[in-house]
Amino acid sequence: MCGIFAVFNIKGDKVHCRNLIRKHLKRILHRGPDATGIAHIELDENTHHFICHQRLSIVDPFLGEQPCFGSSQEVVAVVNGEIYNHMELRNVLKGEHKFVGHGDSQIVPHLYEEFEISEVANMLSGKFGAVIYDHKKERFCIIRDHLGIIPVYIGKGKNGEFYVASEMKAFHDLAATVEILLPGHYYDSEKKKQVRWYNPLHYSFSTIPETSVNLDKVRGLLIEAVHRRLMADVPFGVLLSGGLDSSLIASITVRFYD
């Protein structure tokens, strides 16, 4: 668990705005006490963007700090969650891309440099909430994972400010309106609306499953799902409720961990 907080088009003196952002960022300090990262983009003397991150170090504790930048340094991103296929996605990139360490969040700004935002969302496998800012286009996008495992709130201020955070408490008293970024959706500042990117077949009421149950396939998918989630570089544990499902996950974890 980490915390993301971003404010776009905030007006005022640079020092005042920065102090305000730090004050509100502290409200989600509990989500990521290991490091604080702030990217400040100054559009002019009185208009600013702030893209912030509270880090809980799980993958690449020493080199995985955020915000993270793309190869051009024109694209900056903060991510909360885990991207399980980040190493495979590095091989999908076609251009010259330089990475620092093996942090999973780094893949997001690099993918954005080559693909449309809807494609980026569909390529990511994991649980995530991400904010991407393109300085060249002055465009920002926010993505939420397909099931909405990671929380993402967005809000708008009376003077054109736009807020994004992992928890509503980061900006609820600054925004005039607050809404949830829906699961499987992204927000694009160019379109000024939420767009659904996750469209599986079972979302259609006319789709009737015809494939018979394959228990071996179900077993294989469960094992692979657990395996993907063991990419942490720090000690971890399994919470046991005593039920069959958590016991199975603990059993699979032990086999891979050994």
Can you give a write-up of this model?
By secondary structure, this protein is an alpha+beta fold. The protein folds into two domains: 3-202, Glutamine Phosphoribosylpyrophosphate, subunit 1, domain 1 (4-Layer Sandwich); 211-257, no CATH class. 23% of the residues lie in helices and 29% in strands. It contains six helices and twelve strands. It has helices spanning 14-25, 86-90, 107-114, 117-123, 215-228, 244-257; strands at residues 3-11, 35-44, 47-55, 68-69, 75-83, 126-134, 139-144, 153-156, 162-165, 177-180, 185-188, 193-196. The strands form two sheets. The protein has a six-stranded antiparallel beta sheet with strand order 2-3-1-9-8-10, covered by helices on one side. Strands 4-5-6-7-11-12 form a six-stranded antiparallel beta sheet. Strand 2 (35-44) and strand 3 form a beta hairpin. Helix 5 (215-228) packs across helix 6 (244-257). The longest helix is centred in the last third of the chain and has 14 residues, at 215-228.
Oligomer: single chain
Q: Give the mean pLDDT.
A: 94
Instruction: Encode the helix/strand succession as letters.
Output: EHEEEEHHHEEEEEEEHH
What's the CATH architecture name of the largest domain? 4-Layer Sandwich
- Share of helix, binned: 10-25%
Reported by name, the CATH topology of the largest domain is: Glutamine Phosphoribosylpyrophosphate, subunit 1, domain 1
- Biggest sheet details: 6 strands, antiparallel
Radius of gyration from the alpha-carbon trace, in angstroms: 19 Å
Strand content: 25-35%
Supply the number of helical segments.
Answer: 6
